[in-house]
Amino acid sequence: MSHSNLLEKSDELKAQKLVGDKSLKEILKEHHGQIRWMLQQHARKWNSKLGEITATKHRIELLPEAIPVRSQPYCQDQRDRQFEDETVTKLLKEGAIDPLKSE
Fold it and tell me: How far apart (Å, rounded) are the C-alpha atoms in residues 87 and 103?
């Protein structure tokens, strides 16, 4: 089983544990009003741009002597690589991530 499949399975199991026998559709229908209210109350914390939340400002400070970690590439399943490439392309187009700018 590929890494992405294992992650998906793990997420499914976590979700099942949280919601029991109810489907996500049932839960959303049951709590629709509460979810909508919460989203409206906190709407100013994000805009419609994927990956951008303005609830808090943060910056990752690096030590002046910090050196980038380098490692050998590893073999990756063709499907995993394709999924990764498609996801990165989509996120770049949506502006959720920026192209790598390292030295």
Answer: 24
